[in-house]
């Protein structure tokens, strides 16, 4: 008898070699789905960046307008302090706070100035109503006097009405500015404040 031993190849090796063939199409499909998903994300981020840039530019524009408004208001408060009542110098602090809010893009300081604007506007409405009631009353002999000078009562009513309209316009612009401030993200705040530093716009501390 021969002592030669014949070894048979295991049956499962043939099936093991064929397994990767079935998994190839699944890998291709997954990669194509990932590519489509990434492309959609990139396009969405591009749209978001464009939208954020538009919001930043809009906030910067309104901030410039509010800075001009507060600067005019500060000058008027100083003039009133010189020519009417020295105590009115104190009221310049609130427009200065509004200016600082526009420079720092701070909603709280800007809100303080907005409350001041609406309060001042409402007081002018009451003053116009009182003057109109006096002039329309029977046998009225009312004469408007300021700093020792007498005026026809219609003159102060006209000026107060014009200032009331202007102050309402100021309040509307500041209200729109605050609405934009509440929508800003922390990163957008940083971009706007860095732009303030690049333009070397001064900040005056008041509050």
Strand order of the largest sheet: 1-2
Major β-sheet profile = 2 strands, antiparallel
N to C succession of SSEs: HHHEEHH
What characteristic shape results from the CA principal axes?
elongated
How many runs of DSSP E, i.e. beta strands? 2
Gap from first CA to last CA: 111 Å
Beta percentage is under 5%
Secondary-structure content class:
mainly alpha
Q: Mean pLDDT score, rounded?
A: 76
Query: Helical content, roughly?
Result: over 70%
pLDDT under 50 segments (min length 5)? 13-18, 25-30, 41-51
Number of helical segments?
Answer: 5
Indicate the radius of gyration in whole angstroms: 36 Å
Structure description:
Helix 1 (12-83) packs antiparallel against helix 2 and helix 2 runs antiparallel to helix 3 (107-136). The protein has a domain at 60-198. It contains five helices and two strands. It has 207 residues and is an all-alpha fold. The model is unreliable at 13-18, 25-30 and 41-51 (pLDDT under 50). 76% of the residues lie in helices and 3% in strands. The chain is elongated. Strand 1 and strand 2 form a beta hairpin. The chain has a two-stranded antiparallel sheet. The longest helix is centred in the first third of the chain and has 72 residues, at 12-83.
């Amino acid at each position: 008898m021969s002592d030669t031993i014949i070894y048979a190849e295991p049956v499962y090796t043939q099936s093991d070699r064929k397994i990767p063939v079935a998994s190839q199409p699944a890998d291709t499909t997954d990669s194509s789905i990932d590519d489509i998903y990434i492309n959609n994300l990139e396009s969405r981020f591009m749209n978001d960046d464009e939208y954020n840039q538009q919001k930043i530019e809009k906030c910067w524009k309104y901030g410039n307008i509010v800075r001009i408004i507060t600067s005019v208001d500060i000058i008027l408060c100083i003039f009133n302090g010189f020519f009417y009542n020295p105590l009115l110098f104190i009221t310049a602090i609130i427009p200065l706070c509004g200016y600082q809010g526009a420079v720092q893009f701070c909603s709280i300081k800007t809100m303080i100035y907005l409350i001041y604007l609406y309060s001042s506007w409402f007081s002018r409405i009451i003053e116009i109503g009182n003057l109109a009631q006096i002039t329309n009353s029977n046998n009225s002999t009312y004469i408007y006097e300021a700093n020792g000078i007498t005026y026809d009562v219609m003159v102060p009513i006209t000026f107060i009405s014009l200032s009331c309209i202007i102050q309402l316009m100021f309040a509307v612009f500041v209200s729109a500015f605050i609405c934009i401030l509440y929508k800003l993200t922390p990163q957008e705040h940083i971009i706007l404040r860095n732009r303030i530093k690049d333009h070397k716009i001064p900040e005056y501390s008041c509050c």
